[in-house]
Design a protein that fits this description.
alpha+beta, four-stranded antiparallel beta sheet, 11 helices, three-stranded antiparallel beta sheet, about 10% strand, about 55% helix
Length: about 475
């Protein structure tokens, strides 16, 4: 081998070692960076006529496990969707309350019953009548709060859908732009690895919104599809459409057209069911909360409010009232109209006739809501009737409660138990989905940067660099000796 050939070989070895060391240092420094693909140097022989055979860097590969990433993304969407459902039910359980916490629906029914029993023993006591009014008002306030919370849950879900759609559209546009840049870089012979890292981060950022699958295209580009087959990006990005409602009332539904559905490129798409193109992620879960879970909770508390009103409007309970008059509990001051049950819990109110703050009088709790003057102070007939109405067994005419006639307290317990059971099921599903996502994420990490392995490579690179430098030093010494002859 000629001296020039030896120099070429050693020089090319130094360059290759330097490039490999650069790749290793990038790997180590980005070991915890989301979306980073491990860099891998591919070396090939470099033969130059008259100068020897050295080595050159053929390419810098971005080494990622595409199968692990695809599995993790699908699990990410499932975990996200289950988390949305569970969070909604936790919110409902919080506002309904847990028996024993003092402010729960069940506890307030019990307190109202206790206040009535106290007033029954001393119907002449203004204090006990006042406490009865307070207990009834607290119960009404709690029912109102539960109803309002179900509507707020729908409003929040609707707002979340709008934010998710905005993020989807923005991300798909940016992914399409990165696709074009990657294609240009690849065509020019430059490394697009940094752009691919950025593209993976964008895709990961929306992977929990919709279950996503990606497919390779020419020159490093990719196409993005939903797991159900909707084309989200293939050359051009798709565009989702959604109009947030802002304010949602109990009567507003997707079916009636009062709430917005979802469109893709101007065409309506199924949101739920077997035909859904977006099912499985946080977007479809948010629609489910808005259109199913929250309305169901709202209908249950409406049914509870109706049962409460029916008990205190029953015929013969209050002789001072005529047929069609409102009882102790009213629909915004009016008597119950079963056809107007939707939203009833939010309109439930105490009859103004017994509330001094509304021009009424406490003695009407004892003498009758329609009474024009106080009666005998020791008369406990009406209060006893109230207690029997509250504690007596009565079947519900709406809602999905346990079959059979129950007291109002038991009905409150049924409502609490139904939500608790649904919450427990949702949380168990969330735990399972989250565990699967974490396991798949760990599998993905195992195929990523191993810092121990990278540091071992660095030792080998150091040895190779020193050997090539030694060759150059030796050749330099030989040339110096030749020149001195």
């Amino acid at each position: 081998m000629s001296i020039s050939g030896a120099l070429f070989n050693a020089y090319s070895g130094l360059v290759a070692a330097a490039r490999t060391a650069e790749a290793v240092s990038n790997n180590v420094s980005n070991a915890l960076t989301d979306g980073y693909g491990r860099r891998k140097i591919e070396l090939v022989a470099a033969s130059t006529a008259g100068r020897g055979t050295g080595v050159r860097v053929a390419t810098v590969l971005r080494d990622v496990d595409l199968i692990a990433i695809a599995d993790r993304r699908l699990a990410q969407a499932t975990a996200g969707g289950k988390g949305v459902n569970a969070a909604a039910l936790v919110r409902m359980e919080t506002v309904i309350g847990i028996p024993g916490d003092g402010g729960s629906l069940s506890d307030l029914v019990t307190k109202f019953e206790g206040a009535l029993l106290s007033a029954q023993s001393r119907p002449d006591s203004q204090v006990r009548l006042q406490n009865t009014l307070y207990a009834a008002s607290d119960l009404v306030t709690q029912i109102n709060n539960i109803s309002n919370s179900t509507q707020q849950l729908r409003v929040d879900a609707d707002k979340s859908i709008g934010n998710q759609v905005e993020l989807l559209n923005k991300s798909l546009t940016e992914i399409a732009e990165l696709n074009r840049s990657i294609r240009a870089f690849t065509g020019a012979g430059n490394s697009p690895n940094g752009l691919k890292d950025q593209r993976q981060r964008l895709i990961d950022g929306i992977a929990d919104i919709i279950p996503i699958k990606t497919y390779p295209r020419d020159k490093g580009e990719i196409a993005v599809f939903s797991a159900s087959g909707a084309v989200l990006l293939d050359g051009l990005p798709g565009e989702f459409g959604f109009a947030a409602a802002g304010l949602i009332t109990p009567d507003m539904t997707l079916t009636s057209g009062a709430l917005s559905g979802l469109t893709l490129n101007g065409k309506s798409i199924a949101i739920s069911g077997r035909g859904s193109l977006i099912g499985g992620g946080t977007l479809s879960a948010s629609f489910d909360v808005r259109d199913n879970a929250a309305p169901f909770a709202s209908s249950q508390i409406d049914a509870f409010a109706r049962n409460l009103m029916e008990r205190f409007e029953s015929s013969g309970l209050d002789a001072s009232l005529s047929t069609g008059d409102a009882g102790l509990f009213t629909d915004a001051g009016a008597a119950l109209v079963p056809a107007d049950e939707v939203g009833l819990a939010g309109r439930l109110a105490i009859n103004a006739a017994v509330d001094p703050n509304q021009g009424g009088a406490l003695w009407r709790l004892r003498d009758g809501l329609g009474a024009t003057a106080p009666g005998e102070t020791g008369d406990r007939t009406l209060i006893t009737g109230f207690i029997e109405a509250l504690t007596g067994s009565q079947a519900t005419n709406s809602g999905q409660f346990s079959a059979g006639a129950v007291s109002l307290g038991n009905l409150a317990g049924d409502l609490t138990a139904l939500n608790a059971s649904a919450r427990l099921d949702a949380e168990q599903s969330e735990v399972f989905a989250t565990s699967r996502f974490r396991e798949l994420y760990l599998v993905e990490l195992e195929s990523g940067v191993d810092t121990d392995q990278e540091m071992q490579k660095l030792l080998l690179i150091e040895t190779a660099y020193a050997a090539n430098a030694r060759v150059i030093t030796t050749v330099d010494a030989m040339l110096q000796s030749l020149l001195e002859i």
